[in-house]
Amino acid sequence: xxxxxxxxxxxxxxxxxxxxxxxxxxxxxxxxxxxxxxxxxxxxxxxxxxxxxxxxxxxxxxxxxxxxxxxxxxxxxxxxxxxxxxxxxxxxxxxxxxxxxxxxxxxxxxxxxxxxxxxxxxxxxxxxxxxxxxxxxxxxxxxxxxxxxxxxxxxxxxxxxxxxxxxxxxxxxxxxxxxxxxxxxxxxxxxxxxxxxxxxxxxxxxxxxxxxxxxxxxxxxxxxxxxxxxxxxxxxxxxxxxxxxxxxxxxxx
Length: 253
Prior knowledge:
- By secondary structure, the chain is mainly α.
- About 50% of the residues lie in helices and about 0% in strands.
- It contains 11 helices and no strands.
- The longest helix has 16 residues, at about 235-250.
- The chain is globular and about 60 Å long.
């Protein structure tokens, strides 16, 4: 029979401090992941009956009936561990794609694949620089900071809202380096990589913006939640200067 046990708040605080001390310093500095409002919270707040979180890649039409049937057929196997090597799936994909099964890696979503790559190839202190939509995949989102905040700024303008998400974040990556006062050499190297990946290197490559439109983009970026992950407050002047520096350095290539 269960019984209630009173635990002093001082004991809880002490245990939490022990856990914090055991964690890596980089882990302790991470902010909590903000997944946004749940579907239920949106339903209660706005009185909606049908909700699809497109930003989370949810299908607004729901699961395919074929998928539901397949899951029901395999429901009896849910009590045992599946094949960790996903042999049958890899063989099927190999047959369909013509790629050898040994060259196919199965993961629990793209984050799992990225985690595998990080474990295999990254060392402590290595920098990760990503383009084309990958910037918002790494758990806490703290890595995104100004890069994703600048993308969010572009969403307020009709001229830039439909521009490719990964392309805008890629441009934001360059502005992030400029905001961090990285050296010209490092920034030029990043710009060269961006150019090879077809990332825009100037505002003009994204859209022809007047001063009012650009001011609105800057203001939205400064107030975006991701901007709070920067190590120091970012001002409008600093962001204007960062964009100008990226464009100037890109013009030198």
